[in-house]
Amino acid sequence: MPEGPSIVILREQAAGFVGKTIQRAHGNSKGIDFDALAGQPLLDLRSWGKHFLIQTPEVALRIHLMMFGSYRINERKDSPPRLSLEFDDSGELNFYACSVKRLEHDLDREYDWRGDVMSAQWEPAWALKKLRAEPDTLVCDALLDQTIFAGVGNIIKNEVLFRIRLHPLSTVGALPAAKLRQLVAQARAYSFDFLKWKKASVLKQHWLAHTRKICPRCDIPFHKGHLGKTRRRSFFCTNCQKQYPAPAALTPVRSDSRPRSQRTPPAS
């Protein structure tokens, strides 16, 4: 599933269509009036988290690429598109295997831009307030909560937790104040690192935890698990990533080494 930085790249790549007129719209998405889109000028292209937003004077469209969605600019795939927009200069924008939803024209009423980690309107204090209201939430789930960190996906989650040395099974309410602020700050900072590396086609070279087998700090095997309510894959080191609160120590079970014949039988 593309994460927020990848949608920013899509927005930038498609920016040349802004101001042009849609000559023809078609696709196999349900609930979309394709005929009504024809003749509409494209006013703006925006992104919020993992949502790509297309705005015309009368309607806005939300594209969510889901797990296997893709797009093509000025070219096509063999498979039928969910949405295809053809413009007055023969350019076209095509989306495949994705969700397409009609929204009201006023996107500022639809979205709170303070929650988008890539937005200029991002407000870390607002994210901190929402996190503090959910003290029992695991940090591996909190980072994937799009109402708090819109645009953060599983790659960013794993890399941020490794970068700040935080165990994914830590609870939000147990984090020291400085560590909670660090979590919020790095969710945004790593997202912009992701964007830079993705544009340079070197993103995977910079992964330190995601899909890795050995911790680069401790030189020991990473743990891997489908953790939290989201059940998304987590890659983490139990040596350098601290868990808050610390897991309770298990009480060892003592075995009775006496022969069975000498043991006291249980009370009836």
From TrEMBL:
Assigned keywords, A-Z: DNA damage, DNA repair, DNA-binding, Endonuclease, Glycosidase, Hydrolase, Lyase, Multifunctional enzyme, Nuclease
InterPro entries in UniProt: FPG_cat, FPG_N, H2TH_FPG, Ribosomal_uS13-like_H2TH
Residues covered by the Formamidopyrimidine-DNA glycosylase catalytic domain: 2-94
Keyword DNA repair annotated: yes
Region (Disordered): 248-268
Gene Ontology MF terms: endonuclease activity
Origin superkingdom: Bacteria
Catalytic reactions on record: Hydrolysis of DNA containing ring-opened 7-methylguanine residues, releasing 2,6-diamino-4-hydroxy-5-(N-methyl)formamidopyrimidine
Pfam family, one: H2TH
PROSITE patterns: FPG_CAT
Family to which this protein belongs: Belongs to the FPG family.
PANTHER family: FORMAMIDOPYRIMIDINE-DNA GLYCOSYLASE (PTHR22993)
Stated name of the protein: Endonuclease
Organism: Duganella aceris
